[in-house]
Amino acid sequence: MSRTKKTRRITDIMPARKADKPFEQQKASPSKSRKPSRYELDLQAREEKKKRKHKGLPSGSRANEGLEQKKAVAKEVKDPRIGSRKKVPLMVEFVNQPEKGKTIKPVILEVEKPRLSPELELEQLENNECLNQLLDDLEAGKTLSAEDQKFVDECLDRVHELMTELGIEDEEDDSEALLRQFETMDINKFR
């Protein structure tokens, strides 16, 4: 005959004991103000002791921390501006097929020219061979194309701007103007 180990587990057959019921603190009603019994005080003391005993972190806290962080990372809202749903072709499928209406416009890079001092810029414009040749053609009475005329006008305007900026006046060979200037000049200024 085999022996069976005795257990203290409560089964359906056995009646529930007072000690097996969890302690519930009764709400004090104004009509009933009785003292708790020794049995209730013991249960209350056991519950408090259990609470005091488990002061630290719950078991497995190191393993659970990683899971909580992973869940938090998954909940982050992605910025809708980052990334695009539009598919980008990795290879150029055509190269300027005008008969099909497909052309790729060339990219024009604007390189900023270094700014020259007004004296250097004026000197370069005065020594520009192309501009001098076009001005000689104009003096000879030849007509220029629209592009050449536009180029000459722009260069002459720029020369005029630079001269006014530097305070240079056009030289005039008018002797009468020089004589008038001499007569109106106050000599006492130069003493």
From TrEMBL:
It comes from Ursidibacter maritimus. Residues 9-24, 37-48, 65-80 have a biased composition (Basic and acidic residues). The gene is yihI. Belongs to the YihI family. Keywords: GTPase activation, Ribosome biogenesis. It holds the Pfam family YihI. Residues 1-80 are annotated as: Disordered. This is Der GTPase-activating protein YihI. One of its GO terms (molecular function) is GTPase activator activity. The keyword Transmembrane does not apply.
